[in-house]
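User: I'm putting together a teaching handout on how sequence relates to shape, and I'd like one worked example. Could you take CRISPR-associated endonuclease Cas1 from Methanogenium organophilum, show the sequence you're using, and then write out its predicted structure as tokens right after it?

Assistant: Happy to. First the sequence, then the structure tokens directly below it.
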Amino acid sequence: MTSEHSWHVVAGFGAHIKSTGTTLSILYKGEQKEFPLPSVHHLLLVGGHNIHTSAVTRLLRQGSSISFFDADGTPVGMLNPFGSDVGADVRKAQRARMPHTFAQEIARATLKSRLLAIERTGDQLGENLFYEGEQEILHNLLKDLEYLITMDELRRVHKLAGDMYYEIMARSLSPELGFRRRTKRPHQDPVNAMLSLGYAMLFGNTIVSVIGAYLDPDYGFLREGERSLVADLIDPIKTTMVDEVVFSIARAGLIDRRYEVSTKRCHLNEEVIDALIAPLRESIKQELIDSNVLSLSQSLMGDGPFFLGY
């Protein structure tokens, strides 16, 4: 594989995409961009756009794929050259490799990112968020990851560290918000509701890159099942791309009296949602997501170690 990813994403609505024999041209919001056609191995269209059949034909003829997604990143379908199985070698390698090394790196990067987030938040607030012994426990768990042999052990430590992280971060917020820990839907407090919204946005960005690299999003390493690989890959980057934004908004009081808790779930009003989406779009860094996906793809093909940035 090359040192740079070879998929190209067009997101939003209203782009006009066409091509010559050598160039792919994209006109979006009055700005024209051109790319050498051979450099686009996978074109990913997120949202609603206009694409000329000539561009479709030329991409397929050169062996490239075109994938389609709803605006939220939900995969809809893919066009491949007739008679080909593009990316089959990557997916075969994904299933053939033992999951332990990859799961270990996911758990390691996630725990390190969460430790840094707790310490950074404590520094900002001028207080120590850890109760006695908690920081030592988390650091010991980080050391223990190197020696855990079974997948069950890795998953148990990953879950324990995650539960501790959210409970510790809850101490940075007003108790009136009702956030104690991460919960499953339907959420009964506004912080969990905002976290889920942020994670959904991050999930959408990540699954586009995963499919762009021809990886199987349903074949994870630390997790198993539908979209498990995407869930694995977003874990280490949640803290910087979502959590910091959500907790900052919650501490600033921007959600006071702007949500309702019914017997079934917490409802955020439009003002909160709008205040959250704008900074999330800034904090979700597609370059880092692409870099992590590329690292995984290259490692699966034997082109280097697997390393996750956060």
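A couple of points you could highlight for students: Strands lie at 7-19, 23-28, 31-36, 42-51, 65-69, 75-79, 259-261, 266-268. The chain has two domains: 7-86, 93-300.
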